[in-house]
């Protein structure tokens, strides 16, 4: 069976040490060449080296997704190096201060919208014509914050709900051109940042970190927290021809924490 992304070119924004890295490596393992975009050049170089080790091409492009000229350079570089783009993963995100909406700083909320929503629109618009040339696919990385209304998460939920609406609307607009647009909504992701947070909670409570993990996992159907590769595999599916009739959808990847 051929790799699901064999010889395709996938652009990924927000490449960091957790999910961003996992997305890049799983796309490469599935046969894709990968264009890596983020602000931290050293981090991009590390992931690019890992992709090269898997036998695929990697192009690292330092990018500020909130800046039009920077995004235009990303598009130009991707096309100059690879000749086409088959997939786009909008993974860049910003979490506004976690405080009640009635107290939240509106400039901070506005800044989160700039990264979480408008940057995804910007990149999709810039790549739309090239994606249409190859019946390409766009995947927005969202969050399980869509599924709850806990205090202090209001501003983050606002931006992620807007991102979901954006993906659905783009699906309707770009579908007639052959471009699919879907969403993946992870819950907990067992990577470095969450591990650090659980260690912090454990120290505050005077308990082992494993206890914090087990208590959290007990609220999830599969009794464990999803890892970056498991989120990334869902993205690979949506980028691939296996999902050729799937568009406008939101796939929750949360181990059964929420049912949707």
TrEMBL record:
Keywords: Oxidoreductase. Transmembrane segments: none annotated. SUPFAM superfamilies: NAD(P)-binding Rossmann-fold domains. It holds the Pfam family adh_short_C2. GO terms for molecular function: oxidoreductase activity. This is NAD(P)-dependent dehydrogenase (Short-subunit alcohol dehydrogenase family). It comes from Actinomadura namibiensis.
